């Protein structure tokens, strides 16, 4: 990497020690002077060595003048005297708040305070750093925040006020906050009322259900503004211009976990502040050419549909409702008959079993070619001609315990690799997982493999396909006879230990689809994936510590620029 010119450098004080501080367009670095002279510096190519530190400018949250009360407030009794003397000698200070990576994808806001005898120098540093931050145009300045006070353990409001709002204030982000008063309040407000021109993004504080409200509000508003008819399953939807941020405060929070790597409100707030951008696929779901819903994580029929249906009645239990309904549904061991037709993804989209996990900067999820791109047009054309004669579509009939479409990994704390560990966030496909009728023991093995490192697809009764579109038709809709209307739910070899939701009537011979945790009213559905329809304030899961810093040493080796000032 070409080293960049220094914008500023100075000798300042940090924790009573003299440090040399330097700034260029991408890095702020500081190192102790005395110690590094005494010892051989031996600075490695990392963000931080024993006495040398560096922070990327794009990961600086804010810089401000340090108030007297803040100075040395964390000093121990022993060093308080020394601190007093020091602050007398160097009474001026500024504090840089920056992103600090801790364990397992968690971010925290770290502070570093630099002292000086020279007030003008401190002001110059604040000015130049702020100038650099203002060049980062992807950062949001104004946000619309919706809080679901009843999501998860009902801590949404507190989480926002205590953990998120102070960070937004520090980063000078203006936030208009709406605490929802009913289900679909946020969706309806976004659809028709909200003045979206005022904002750079919309933030939801809640779970996947709350995210789904924001998704529906924004996508529907965008289509209405652009006169796109959502009821047309083949309509080319217009991408949303506003980014969505998620502060996890729900029960599963799978969309946050799968796009950030952790469910932590502070980490999510910091991803919002730095204006991260992660495109995401959205599935549209139709029934007989009538629009039903959008979905970004799990569309599940059978096992997960039954869990969600049952768990809605136990909402008062909070997140534990899924465990109880999960056990109950597992013991019921229902299966459902129907046929699935699907249009496979192109070969360059990889395979659900290829073990190429979607990570920050994923190659497979690079932006799709513009509609002018020839390659793209060819594949669209192929699809049209295929569709006329059902060419390219595959059909599978059978008895299924679960039919799952995972448009992303669906990783969550319950299943850290997710339902489809190699699914991609923004490749324009969904992984269709078909779990056929099998013994309880085999199904249990398959389920347990979601919680460890084994391959959950390595069973004769499980198949998985990467697809662009699919349709499902439950068996009772295929056979239009009275006999079928009285058909009871199908059970495998064992008699049910728990009768679950199944009684002998027509409706219960079907399961329901769950879409991001919400229940759909129809079993027969058509699904299309719309690649990269929305953008989140996230960057995908980082590989490890992704500090793509230039060697901080290069900062010290450079000729000073016009900005240089030394104390
Ligand atoms: C015997 C051990 C069995 C362990 C099975 C673990 C498999 C878990 C896979 C979970 C995939 C979850 C996909 C995400 C779905 C969410 O959108 C949805 C709603 O979330 P929220 O609004 O935040 O509550 N949550 C669920 O569908 C919960 C599924 C729980 C299944 C046990
Ligand atoms: N004020 C409210 N009162 C009741 N329900 C609400 C309110 N705000 C949002 N909801 C609904 O609550 C449901 C669950 O929300 P969510 O935040 O996903 O929590 P959880 O993860 O616990 O399911 C969603 O369907 C959402 O539409
Ligand atoms: Ca996808």
From TrEMBL:
Q: Which Gene Ontology cellular component terms are annotated?
A: membrane
Residues making up the signal peptide according to the UniProt record: none
Q: Which SUPFAM superfamilies does the annotation name?
A: NAD kinase/diacylglycerol kinase-like
Q: Which residue range or ranges hold the DAGKc domain?
A: 138-289
Q: Where is the composition biased (Basic and acidic residues)?
A: 370-388
Give the source's domain of life in one word.
Answer: Eukaryota
Q: Which GO terms describe its molecular function?
A: ceramide kinase activity
Region listing for Disordered, in residue ranges = 369-388
Tell me which Gene Ontology terms the entry assigns under biological process.
ceramide metabolic process
Q: Which InterPro entries match?
A: ATP-NAD_kinase_N, CERK_C, CERK_PH, Diacylglycerol_kinase_cat_dom, Lipid_Phosphate_FormReg, NAD/diacylglycerol_kinase_sf
Q: Matching PANTHER family, A to Z?
A: CERAMIDE KINASE, SPHINGOSINE KINASE
Q: What is this protein called?
A: DAGKc domain-containing protein
Q: Which organism is it from?
A: Perca flavescens (American yellow perch)
């Amino acid at each position: 990497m070409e080293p960049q010119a220094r914008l500023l450098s100075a000798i300042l004080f940090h924790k009573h020690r003299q440090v040399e501080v330097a700034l260029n367009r991408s890095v702020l670095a500081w190192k102790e002077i005395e110690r590094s002279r005494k010892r051989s510096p031996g600075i490695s190519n990392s963000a931080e060595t024993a006495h040398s530190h560096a922070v990327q400018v794009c990961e600086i949250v804010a810089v401000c003048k340090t108030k007297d009360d803040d100075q040395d407030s964390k000093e121990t009794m022993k060093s308080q005297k020394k601190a007093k003397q020091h602050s007398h000698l160097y009474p001026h200070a500024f504090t840089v708040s920056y992103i600090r990576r801790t364990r397992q994808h968690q971010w925290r806001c770290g502070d570093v305070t630099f002292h000086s005898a020279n007030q003008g120098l401190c002001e110059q540093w604040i000015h130049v750093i702020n100038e650099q931050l203002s060049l980062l145009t992807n950062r949001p300045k104004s946000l619309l925040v919706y809080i679901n006070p009843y999501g998860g353990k009902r801590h949404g409001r507190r989480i926002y006020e205590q953990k998120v709002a102070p960070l937004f204030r520090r980063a000078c982000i203006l936030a208009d906050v709406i605490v929802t008063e009913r289900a679909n309040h946020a969706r309806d407000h976004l659809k028709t009322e909200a003045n979206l021109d005022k904002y750079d993004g919309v933030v939801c504080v809640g779970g996947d259900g709350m995210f789904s409200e924001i998704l529906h509000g924004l996508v529907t508003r965008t289509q209405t503004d652009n006169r796109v008819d959502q009821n047309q399953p083949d309509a080319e939807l217009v991408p949303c211009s506003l980014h969505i941020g998620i502060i996890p405060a729900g029960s599963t929070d799978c969309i946050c976990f799968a796009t950030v790597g952790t469910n932590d409100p502070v980490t999510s707030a910091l991803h919002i502040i730095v204006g991260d951008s992660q495109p995401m696929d959205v599935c549209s779901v139709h029934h007989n050419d009538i629009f039903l819903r959008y979905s970004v994580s799990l569309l599940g029929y059978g096992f997960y549909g039954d869990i969600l249906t049952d768990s809605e009645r136990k909402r008062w239990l909070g997140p534990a409702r899924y465990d109880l309904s999960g056990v109950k549904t597992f013991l019921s061991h229902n299966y459902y008959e129907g046929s699935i037709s699907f249009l496979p993804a192109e070969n360059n989209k990889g395979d659900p079993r290829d073990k190429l996990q979607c990570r920050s900067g994923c190659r497979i999820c690079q932006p799709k070619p513009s509609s002018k791109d020839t390659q793209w047009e060819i594949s669209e054309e192929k699809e049209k001609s295929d569709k006329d004669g059902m060419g390219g579509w595959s059909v599978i009939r059978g008895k299924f315990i679960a039919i799952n479409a995972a448009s992303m990994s669906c990783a969550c704390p319950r299943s850290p690799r997710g339902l489809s560990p190699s699914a991609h966030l923004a490749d324009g496909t969904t992984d269709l997982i078909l779990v056929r009728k099998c013994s309880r023991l085999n199904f249990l093995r398959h389920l347990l493999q979601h919680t460890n490192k084994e391959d959950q697809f390595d069973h004769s009764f499980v198949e998985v396909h990467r697809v662009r579109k699919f349709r499902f038709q439950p068996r009772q809709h295929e056979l239009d006879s009275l006999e079928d209307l009285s058909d009871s739910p199908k059970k495998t070899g064992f008699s049910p230990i728990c009768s679950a939701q199944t009684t002998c009537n027509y409706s219960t011979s079907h399961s329901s689809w769950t879409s991001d945790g919400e229940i759909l009213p129809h079993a027969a559905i058509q699904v299309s994936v719309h690649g990269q329809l929305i953008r989140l304030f996230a960057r995908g899961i980082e590989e490890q510590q992704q500090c793509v810093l230039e060697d901080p040493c290069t900062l010290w080796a450079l000729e000073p620029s016009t900005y240089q000032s030394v104390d």
